[in-house]
């Protein structure tokens, strides 16, 4: 029997059991839909982030500490303050470096304007005014006195009165201290909605964390440094010198825990790291997809086995009118492949639909993961073959006499 | 060994055929049957329920294989055939008609009739054309697109007969084709079979009703898997039925 005939006959029997066929393929539909949805969201997410970062690539680097947790997975940032004032001063002298802005967080409890109060939500970072030298402020300018601050757009929007340059904020800290500052400028929220509301204050006098340096002096120390190079071409050599100093001669090298690593990350490094994460996620999704498809195959196989038993008389009739074992095998195999492909196609459609809703809602770009769609359809065929083999083999072996005696 | 004297004139030869089923205890469903059916003959097999009629028919129809003995259909020894070859033989040289009609409920009358041709890989247009012709021949020219559930018992059996004729077989095997029909409809079906026989199809019919058996030229009476007696109903045609070698009654099929 040729393939077109078996397709026609199989399609008939699938259509005559619409509900059952739909239920049979549910596993495959859900599995494939989940994968496609993840892929649409993942691609949309990374495109929106990478797009944002790449669009205005700046010659900046971040110095931070990280560790590989024991019997853990991935890398974890470490927030211990190990980069001292001395380190900052030395790094500022490195060839190609324009400035080094330290960054330390402050425990802000409450933020208030004249008539509004926000508890929590806003976090505060101490840094130097250099940090905003090149950053396009939405309004105002960088701080240059100890009672001035910069807020980002998210803070500004947090208050009904829309905090803007010139307004006064009262900040209450965890240690009981409080300060009243004037907003000097409003900074952009780099990641849009994802950016936390943040207040930037001058290191002096708000940042008070100190450590004892290897030289025996007491110095302010920071968990993070922001470095800006003179130009994009300066980034790479500067990065090398900075790494060299930090790893060998700095206070940080002595202050850090043995397992900790000093990381100097450029924008490109950040993108790369992010893409690595996306790749890892992809592997993970692949594994989820694998499990879903195994479950899906079992679903199809199960129904096909039931269907062989149910249709035993039909098989007997077909054999009586001249169907060979091969014909019967082919019919059942084609039927399960058709089910697999229908499941995969429906899954792709559903996945794209849900993904589309997701990215529309999150305002990310829509992506069509063509490679994954192709993989999904191929998997549909594979699932069909694998799950159909045993039932088809059983159907082929049905004894026509037994089958025709069957009520 | 069995050299046939007039090989062209013999449709079916069975020699000492045995088939035993093993369930709780062995049942010799067919216990040493020899017979030969001449081309164009119309033979009825009668006997009480359980006497082995269906088993014999299934053996000749290559649905079942004998444990012992030899069966030839159209001059081919079926024991030597592979499973696929026997399937092919069922599809082309043999047509089956069952008591319960056994149509595929999802398919229309025409599609049911075309089914044996699908397995025989004939072209779609030819199939449709032939299914139409056959349905017209059995008097169902106006029921081509109907499904079995929309047809009466007699009409269903006509579809089944048309299906049996699809690949133009030389041998038609009918197992109690009127068993599920009222007398009048049964008679109509029998008239159709007689008609087909006149046009040259060899027919072997199983029944336990005397009135039905009387449409045939010969009756083979079975009891407990053996041939009890043979009866010639005296049609003019020169057909022969032989039992086992102790009592050869005719010239065909037995040369020992
Ligand atoms: N597939 C089978 N398995 C076991 N026993 C069977 C089978 N087919 C027939 N038999 C037994 O063989 C005997 C003959 O059966 P069958 O040929 O169907 O008789 P009939 O058609 O004359 O009523 C019966 O005793 C029946 O129970
Ligand atoms: Mg019977």
List the helices and strands and how they pair.
The complex is a heterodimer of chains A (407) and B (256).
Chain A: H1 3-16, H2 18-55, E1 60-67, E2 76-78, E3 83-84, H3 85-92, E4 97-106, E5 108-112, E6 117-119, E7 123-127, E8 137-140, E9 148-152, H4 153-158, E10 168-173, E11 178-187, E12 198-202, H5 203-206, E13 210-212, E14 218-222, E15 224-229, H6 232-248, H7 251-255, E16 261-266, H8 267-310, H9 312-320, H10 325-362, H11 370-396, H12 400-405
Parallel strand pairs in A: 7-12, 9-11
Antiparallel strand pairs in A: 1-2, 1-15, 1-16, 3-14, 4-7, 4-15, 5-6, 5-10, 8-11, 9-12, 10-11, 13-14
Chain B: E1 10-22, E2 26-38, E3 42-46, H1 53-60, E4 68-73, E5 76-77, H2 83-92, E6 94-97, H3 109-119, H4 124-137, H5 153-164, E7 171-175, H6 183-198, E8 202-206, H7 210-213, E9 218-223, E10 226-232
Parallel strand pairs in B: 3-8, 3-9, 6-7, 7-8
Antiparallel strand pairs in B: 1-2, 1-4, 4-5, 9-10
Helix pairs in contact in B: 3-4, 3-5, 4-5, 5-6
Magnesium ion binds at residues 53-54, 175 of chain B.
């Amino acid at each position: 029997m040729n393939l077109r005939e078996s397709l026609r006959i199989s399609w008939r029997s699938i259509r005559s059991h619409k509900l059952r066929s739909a239920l049979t393929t549910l596993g495959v539909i859900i599995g494939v839909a989940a994968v496609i949805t993840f892929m649409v969201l993942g691609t949309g997410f990374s495109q929106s982030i990478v797009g944002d970062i790449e669009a205005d690539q700046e010659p900046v680097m971040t110095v931070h500490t990280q560790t590989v947790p024991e019997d853990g997975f991935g890398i974890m940032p470490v927030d211990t303050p190990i980069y001292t004032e001395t380190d900052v001063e030395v790094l500022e002298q490195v060839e190609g470096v324009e400035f080094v802005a330290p960054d330390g967080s402050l425990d802000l409890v409450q933020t208030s304007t004249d008539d509004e109060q926000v508890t929590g939500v806003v976090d505060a970072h101490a840094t130097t005014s250099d940090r905003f030298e090149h950053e396009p402020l939405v309004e105002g300018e960088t701080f240059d006195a100890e009672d001035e601050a910069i807020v980002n757009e998210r803070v500004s929007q947090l208050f009904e009165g829309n905090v803007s340059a010139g307004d006064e904020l009262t900040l209450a800290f965890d240690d009981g201290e409080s300060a009243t500052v004037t907003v000097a400028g409003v900074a952009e929220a780099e990641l849009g909605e994802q950016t936390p509301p943040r207040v930037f204050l001058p290191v002096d006098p708000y940042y008070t964390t100190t450590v004892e340096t290897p030289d025996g002096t007491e110095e302010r120390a920071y968990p993070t440094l922001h470095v800006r190079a003179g130009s994009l071409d300066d980034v790479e050599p500067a990065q090398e010198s900075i790494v060299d100093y930090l790893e060998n001669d700095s206070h940080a090298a002595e202050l850090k825990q043995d397992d900790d690593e000093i990381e100097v990350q450029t924008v490109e490094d950040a993108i790369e790291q992010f893409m690595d994460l996306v790749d890892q996620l992809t592997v993970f999704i692949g594994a989820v997809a694998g499990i879903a498809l195994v479950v899906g195959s079992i679903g199809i196989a199960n129904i096909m086995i039931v269907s062989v038993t149910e249709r035993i008389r039909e098989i007997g009739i077909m054999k009586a009118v001249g169907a060979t074992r091969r014909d019967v095998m082919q019919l059942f195999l084609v039927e399960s492949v058709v089910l697999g492909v229908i499941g995969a196609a429906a899954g792709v459609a559903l996945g794209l639909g849900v993904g589309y809703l997701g990215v529309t809602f999150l305002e990310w770009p829509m992506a069509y993961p063509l490679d994954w769609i192709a993989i999904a359809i191929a998997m549909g065929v594979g699932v069909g073959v694998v799950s159909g083999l045993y039932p088809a083999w059983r159907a082929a072996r049905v004894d026509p006499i037994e089958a025709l005696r069957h009520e | 060994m069995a050299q046939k004297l007039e090989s062209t004139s013999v449709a079916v030869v069975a020699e000492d055929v045995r088939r035993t089923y093993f369930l709780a205890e062995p049942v010799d469903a067919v216990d040493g049957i020899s017979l030969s059916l001449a081309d164009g003959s119309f033979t009825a097999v009668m006997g009480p329920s359980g006497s082995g009629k269906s088993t014999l028919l299934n053996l000749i129809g290559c649905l079942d294989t004998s444990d012992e003995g030899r069966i030839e259909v159209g001059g081919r020894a079926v024991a030597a055939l592979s499973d696929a070859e026997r399937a092919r033989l069922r599809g082309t040289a043999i047509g089956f008609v069952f008591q319960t009609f056994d149509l595929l409920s999802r398919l229309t009358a025409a599609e049911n009739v075309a089914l044996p041709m699908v397995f025989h890989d004939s072209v779609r247009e030819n199939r449709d054309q032939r299914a139409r012709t056959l349905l017209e021949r059995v008097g169902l020219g106006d029921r081509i697109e109907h499904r079995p559930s929309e047809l009466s018992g007699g009409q269903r059996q006509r579809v089944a007969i048309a299906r049996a004729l699809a690949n133009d077989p030389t041998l038609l095997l009918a197992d109690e084709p009127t068993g599920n029909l009222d007398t009048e409809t049964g008679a109509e079906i029998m008239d159709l079979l007689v008609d087909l026989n006149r046009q040259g199809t060899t027919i072997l019919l199983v029944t336990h009703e005397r009135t039905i058996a009387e449409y045939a030229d010969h009756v083979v009476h079975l009891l407990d898997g053996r041939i009890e007696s043979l009866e010639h109903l005296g049609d003019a045609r020169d057909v022969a039925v032989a039992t086992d070698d102790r009592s050869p009654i005719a010239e065909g099929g037995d040369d020992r």
